[in-house]
Amino acid sequence: MSGLINLQLEDLMPELRPDADHDFTNFNDQKSADDPFLAELFDTPTYDFLELDRQEITKEPENETMLQTEMEVENEVDLEVEKTSSQNQESINSDMKFCSSRPGSFRGIPMTYYELIETALTHSENGKLTLKEIYDWLFENVAEFHDGNAKKWQNSIRHNLSLHRSRFKKEQNPEEGKSSLWSLNIARCFSTNDGDFGDNDS
DNA sequence: CTATGTAAACAAC
DNA sequence: GTTGTTTACATAG
Quick check: is A84 in a domain? Predict the structure, then answer.
């Protein structure tokens, strides 16, 4: 129990580590005995959508109008996304194909399911959404999901939520009868609940 | 080999 | 039926 809180800044930001044999990919072999929990916890990759934005934008100078999305995002992204204006629909042309690992695009940026869910959570009121709310947000904001094939992508959403336990946190919904609340697992760091991390994988 | 997507069986509610 | 969990297989890189 004492080992859990023993982290230092270098643990959070390994790039600051002086010696830094940056081998995160191998922590399973090397470091797991030490702090597998933390290793898993901070396994979460970057969720820097702005960075993603820039990369994709600079890659395709074709759409100069996209540069403005950068500002929008930085502002606050109040994407009530009214009715997905026809322009939006246009930008997601049928000739625009995504590699298989990026099934949908948000604001023109191809993203994986994980990134899409993360985006939905990030844009929610308090970072917590029910499964249904995740569905709804994605349906509102991802035109690729408008093809009437909800069963397919919704299955993938559920699969992602369950599979990536180090990325997503499931929390009981205080409202009775409603399904769990999902959030980014990094929130565990700030949980005031001491101790009960629920899942004992025997 | 790893990350991801897709399909599907299954349990719990 | 919905929500989660899990296994299996396919494919891109």
Answer: no
